[in-house]
Write a structure and sequence with these properties.
The protein is an alpha+beta fold. The strands form 17 sheets. Strands 21, 22, 27, 28, 29, 30 and 31 form a 7-stranded mixed sheet that branches. Helix 7 packs across helix 8 and helix 25 packs parallel to helix 26.
């Protein structure tokens, strides 16, 4: 355990000159607990899973699909062999630049065997370009970065559930056998004690029918099987046979389920049972014995049709065999159903229904019953779909080609495989457009777990239980971070230390607590028992030093028995004795140690074992030595179902320097419950206080003082923080900011140790050095160099800016994995999502009412919250029926002023300032032409094509958008053959438009504690309240927003932040292990600040003191992606809907504000009759009235009375369509003639058509 208040060095940095430059090398940590292990690579799950797919997953698939034979099985046989990935044609940077897919060619060797002659034809076949994962765990598909989200689903296996019968009050149990692929088996019991089964979700049948049928199946040693002869079928499967299988199972129970079900069963032998099963499963088909056998075999005993998968067999063995230990469980390689599996399920169901002691139904929401399908498995599943489609094509071609002329390449069609992969990456619910708002959003997207998607849950049917936090989530899934909407609880995030094991179950690490230590004899005998006499004795687990965690004995090491007699004075070189000695040294005994041969006491209870005594004890013919419980640095990863067996202490349980518990009882978890337990019963201890939460949540300082709902908002809002112009790491952090930045993939990390040779804005060159600091020489005999290309002002998926900046200088020595370049939201290798600003909690003229935020003009002037946003505009020139579209500067009816920024090709210059409706790319589209007059034909003959009718379809800047052009890309089908343009597209032009957005009223801001608000006013600096030394505050927050939200972490952050800023320090206060109230008071005193954190403020407007002291301090504030500039919108006239003639809705359509039902009620309540009439007619869909109103306003005349709105006419037509005679009457009950003609369509005023713009402009 490390001493309190220590300085932890960050990665070595060369810092710019400026305030706090030197001090920023250190972050002062309040953490009392030192993590037993380092936080693992946070994207390891993604990378390891894809690597498994490339090496093992594809191998499995090709093995599974081979051999492919023709329909007769007598002519041709095709097998897939070795495969290999080629070199990608373009690197990932080029793929992003040119909208390509980062992929590599996949080649596989194929063997075609002609069965009649035995001739074999081999060929190396191209199976298409396969998308590759980048080193950051993403895929680049058509230039856009995508992430495959891991899916959390119910694991294959058998599950028992209970339901209370309302009539009898008994718990009736059911069982579901779920394979990875194939038919489900569902067993049910009813109140009449009958057990029934549903095969593949068809009709129910008595379970004894299935039992009689499977009794005729004869399993063989190789894992396959066969049906018994037809002659045996009638003599097989009688009641006596079934009763013999279950023996005396029901004798001791009150309810005789088997007996009752046999009485209900109308079949008497295996033959009748097979026919009956076939009738139920295939109701329309003629039931024959052969059909029934092949159907049942394909359902459960065929490897091609039924697959439990390794994990399914593992869960089945665990649930059925290992619990009672009566039978030898089947091997994990047996992936089909065995007859004895069905026996065991029925046996367990009967025991559960009769209340067998120690047995209970399964908890389906327990993480022991849910597994993660990672990226590799998801891609494998989709590749399987493509291969099976390809198999069907191959079989069809085999039956059509001449046998002699057939070749592997002529049979294989790779299109189904390519289509399946492309369709999945582009359209699957689990293949997502990566959230690139900031590095944390990127990292969280890769660590997300979704219960949705194919084979998962749907958000409409998911109940409360599956969404709720479960005790098994501890250390595996974060209990805080989840979305707030309909997906709450269905989408989660892996906890900081969690990992996925080879079976797909989530594991979390724990430190082993030693209560006893094995002698050399004990280690050997344990290993001997575990290998069960199968030859050589090998170590079944690794042994590590209790204090240091150093490896003492490698798992799999060959062991020999320790010598019976040893001269303890001599150097003992025996392996097991040295391991046991190392484990025993410095431990405190809990019993007297007596030499069994001499009867002498070697060491007494309570004494500390020295190295010499440990050597003697290790050589004794004992198995174990009882010691005072000690927490080791031997870390073990444990799954949720395994964890139920152990008592696990909290990470903050007090231990001394030797790792021994200070208290006699500690708080621990056992079987899902929290309780105080004697230390003699503790098995494991948490590795870190933050292992329970995810990375986003672990970035919230004083998380333990925040309400969980607000912490959830804080976690989610950090991912929405926009990268700012000058990133600034938080004064009060949690100590994992550098880890989140490192693993996000946005910072540049040194591949090797070395010396920086040169640094420019976009490139860093490093000369490699070895451990001694000498230059590394490459194969060419030159000094090895690493070149790092930086990403400069690149657009992210969310239109934020990715810009990498060097953080090293020429001549600097760097180590491997040092951060050498920062990104948009990192500061000296630490995550920097917001800014440290001086905040006062006080009301101010109602300006911060209801979470509104008052901001100082300083933040605008000094670009504190200024962010860069890059939008991409794209236009395509297509081939149309009337001729090709053209990208040109020659645009009809456009003046020279509008063309001033276009080059000779009609494309805007880089560096041009643009405003709404400016032309970015000039484009003309041919118009449909009517028959030409003689004059027009003459003009066409003189001027040629120039005189033809074309329409202006140029790309223009959207409404409300201003900015500077920073990039232009032009792709031409003839000039860029590599670029994959869509069918019918001749040219494509992309324009990158950059905007600098300062903080403005209407922008959303937030702290890290879920305290969010909208900027209401930007006040002049001189009007802001100021401190005694004249420093004005930057932000004024409302104190009323704190107590009801119960997120007091923000107040503690305010106090500590102010003290740290005064002292020029940065702070790390880890979650659940951070600064206490006493620590904060101590720091306030050191900084000579009041200990209550309050100070007298002066009113900037009057210079007078405010009546009461105010809480002031430094808080880390984020600017969120909900920016007012994206949302603000106004319309005078604009487009109308074709059917209703009402204005369109939404900013994108340049629509109006909807005046809805409740707004109408408001005007009715005020009796504002004329405004109401205006709203429902001329401002909406009175087509003629709105044109006349516009005309009257332009000419300065009185506005005429409104006409009939279009929606009223639509209503009349709808009523008439129902067969009702509807007439419109005036006040005098005279019929009114509604004019159906759309007069407004043709009304033009001074060249203005106020029916709105055409939609395709």
């Amino acid at each position: 355990m490390s001493p309190k208040n220590v300085h932890v060095a960050l990665p070595p940095l060369i810092l710019p000159n400026g305030p706090r430059a030197e001090e920023r090398k250190l972050r002062h940590t309040f953490g009392q607990e030192r993590d037993a292990i380092d936080v693992p690579n946070l994207i390891e799950t993604q990378i390891a899973s894809f690597n498994w797919f490339r090496s093992e997953g594809l191998k499995e698939l090709f093995r599974e699909i081979s051999p492919i034979t023709d329909f007769t099985g007598k002519n041709l046989e095709l097998r897939f062999g070795e495969f290999a990935f080629g070199t990608p044609r373009h690197d990932e940077h080029e793929c992003r630049e040119y909208d390509l897919t980062y992929s590599a060619p996949l080649r596989v060797s194929v063997q075609l065997r002609i069965l009649s002659t035995g001739e074999i034809k081999e060929s190396d076949t191209f199976l298409g370009d396969f998308p590759l994962m980048t080193e950051n765990g993403t895929f680049v598909i058509n230039g856009a970065e995508r992430v495959v989200v891991s899916q959390l689903i119910r694991s294959p296996g058998v599950y028992f559930s209970a339901e209370r019968d309302p009539n009898t009050g008994r718990d009736l149990h059911s069982a579901k056998l779920i394979p990875n692929r194939g038919a489900w088996l569902e067993f049910e019991t009813n109140r009449r004690d009958v057990v029934s089964v549903k095969v593949d979700r068809k009709r129910k049948i008595p379970v004894t029918v299935l039992l009689r049928a499977v009794l005729a199946w004869r399993p063989e040693a190789n894992g396959e099987g066969r049906w018994c002869d037809d002659s045996e079928l009638t003599s097989n499967g009688h009641n006596e046979h079934i009763e013999a299988v279950f023996g005396t199972l029901e004798e001791k129970y009150e309810h005789k389920y088997l007996r009752t079900t046999l009485d209900k069963d109308n079949t008497h032998n295996s033959k009748e049972a097979l026919i009956e099963l076939y009738k139920r499963l295939r109701p329309g088909d003629p039931p024959t014995l052969d059909n029934a056998k092949s159907l049942l075999e394909s359902y459960f005993f065929s490897e091609r049709r039924y697959d439990l998968a390794k994990v399914g067999r593992y869960k089945l063995n665990k649930n059925l065999y290992e619990r009672d230990g009566t039978m030898d469980p089947p091997s994990l390689d047996v992936r089909v159903l065995l007859v004895r599996d069905i026996y065991k399920i029925i046996e367990r169901l009967i025991q559960l229904n009769n209340g067998h002691p120690g047995m209970k139904a399964d908890d389906i929401d327990h993480l022991g019953n849910r597994r993660v399908r990672t990226v590799g498995e998801l891609i494998q599943q989709q590749f399987r779909v493509g291969l099976l489609r390809m198999e069907r094509v191959i079989k069809e071609r085999m039956s059509l080609v001449e046998t002699d002329s057939a070749t592997p390449n002529s049979l294989i069609n790779i299109r189904p495989v390519l289509a399946a992969i492309r369709e999945w990456f582009g359209g699957s619910q689990l293949s997502q457009f990566m959230d690139q708002t900031n590095p944390l959003a990127e990292l969280t997207n890769k660590r997300r777990l979704s219960a949705l998607g194919p084979g998962g849950l749907s958000r409409d049917r998911a109940g409360f239980e599956v969404r709720d936090v479960h005790h098994s989530h501890y250390g595996r899934i974060c209990p805080v971070e989840t979305p707030e909407g309909p997906n709450i609880g269905l989408i989660g995030t892996m906890s900081t230390f969690a990992r996925v094991n080879e079976m797909g179950f989530l594991e979390t690490p724990y430190r082993r607590v030693y209560r006893e230590i094995q002698t050399a004899q004990g280690i050997y005998e344990e290993a001997k028992e575990l290998v069960k006499g199968k030859g050589t004795v090998i170590a079944q687990r690794e042994y590590r030093d209790i204090i240091t965690g150093d490896l003492l004995l490698v798992q799999g090491s060959v062991l020999t028995a320790p010598p019976k007699k040893t001269d303890i004075e001599e150097e003992n070189t025996h392996l097991l004795q040295s391991v046991s000695t190392a484990l025993l040294t410095h431990q405190k005994l809990r019993e007297d140690i007596v030499d069994p041969e001499t009867g002498k006491t070697i060491a007494e209870e309570g004494s500390i074992i020295t190295a010499a005594i440990a050597k003697r004890i290790a050589a004794l013919p004992l198995r174990t030595v009882q010691i005072h419980p000690v927490v080791s640095r031997d870390v073990k990863y444990i799954t949720a179902d395994e964890e139920e067996k152990y008592a696990i202490a909290q990470a903050n349980a007090l231990v001394d320097e030797a790792g021994r518990f200070r208290a006699s009882e500690v708080s621990c978890r056992y079987s899902g419950e929290f309780e105080d337990m004697d230390i003699a019963k503790i098995d494991y201890m948490d590795v870190s206080p933050k292992q329970v939460v995810s990375v986003s949540t672990a970035l919230i300082p004083f998380l333990e003082h925040d309400d969980a709902n607000r912490a959830l908002m804080g976690s989610n809002m950090q991912r929405q923080a926009v990268p700012l112009l000058r990133p600034d790491a938080p004064i009060v952090g949690t100590g994992i900011e550098h880890l989140a930045a490192r693993d996000s993939g946005q910072v540049v990390v040194a591949r090797h140790a070395g010396t920086v040779l040169s640094v420019s804005g976009d490139t860093i060159i490093v000369e490699q050095t070895d451990a001694m600091g000498n230059p590394v020489i490459n194969e060419a005999g030159e000094i090895a160099r690493d070149e790092y290309r930086l990403r400069k002002f690149m657009r992210s998926n969310q239109d934020t800016c990715i810009n990498q900046r060097p953080s090293v200088v020429r001549g600097q020595k760097i180590k491997k994995n040092d951060v050498i370049a920062d990104s948009s939201s990192t500061d000296h290798g630490e995550l920097a999502l917001g800014q440290n600003v001086l905040v006062a909690y006080m009301p101010w003229e109602g300006g911060n009412f209801e979470d509104a935020i008052l901001v100082s003009e300083r933040l605008v002037r000094e670009d504190v919250f200024t962010s860069i946003h890059i939008e991409r505009y794209e236009i395509e020139a297509r081939e149309t029926k009337l001729g090709p579209e053209e990208i040109t500067r020659d645009i009809p009816n456009v003046g020279p002023e509008s063309l001033r920024n276009l080059d000779e090709r009609g494309i805007i210059y880089v560096g041009a300032e643009v405003h709404p409706n400016d032309i970015l790319v000039g484009k003309i589209t041919p118009k449909g032409e009517t028959e030409l007059t003689a004059e027009e034909r003459l003009l066409r003959a003189i001027f040629g094509e120039k005189a033809r009718e074309v329409k202006d379809s140029s790309l223009r800047v959207q409404n409300g958008v201003r900015g500077k052009v920073i990039g232009v890309k032009r792709f031409d089908r003839t000039e860029n053959p590599d670029v994959d343009l869509s069918v019918g597209v001749n040219q494509k032009v992309q324009i990158l438009l950059c905007q600098k957005r300062k903080i403005s009223a209407g922008d959303k801001m937030a702290g890290r504690h879920g305290n969010k608000g909208v900027v209401s006013r930007i006040l002049p600096i001189e009007d802001m309240p100021f401190l005694e030394d004249g420093t004005p505050v930057d932000i004024i927050l409302n104190p009323i927003g704190v107590p009801s939200r119960m997120n007091l972490g923000q107040i503690l952050e305010t106090h500590l932040g102010w003290a740290a800023e005064k002292l020029g320090m940065r702070i790390a206060t880890p979650v659940f292990d951070g600064a206490s109230e006493e620590d904060i008071h101590e720091w306030q005193q050191r900084a000579e600040l009041p200990t209550d954190g309050k100070i007298s403020l002066y009113d900037g407007r009057t210079g007078n003191l405010f009546h009461n002291p105010v809480t002031v301090g430094y808080v880390y504030v984020l600017k969120l992606a909900h920016l007012v500039e994206d949302k603000i919108h106004a319309r005078s006239t604009g487009p109308y809907s074709l059917v209703t003639q009402q204005p369109l809705g939404g900013k994108a359509q340049f629509g109006g504000q909807r005046f809805g039902e409740m707004e109408v009620w408001a005007l009715e309540a005020y009796g504002a009759a004329y405004i109401l009439q205006e709203m429902l007619t001329v401002k909406s869909d009175d087509v003629v009235g709105r044109v006349k109103t516009y005309e009257a306003i332009v000419k300065g005349e009185a506005i005429q009375e409104a006409g009939v709105p279009e929606s009223f006419k639509v209503l009349i037509k709808e009523l008439q369509s129902l067969g009702l005679s509807v007439d419109v009457l005036s006040e005098d009950e005279e019929p009114v003639q509604l004019n159906d003609e759309n007069d407004g369509d043709t009304i033009q005023l001074d060249g203005i058509n106020i029916m709105g713009r055409e939609r395709d402009e």
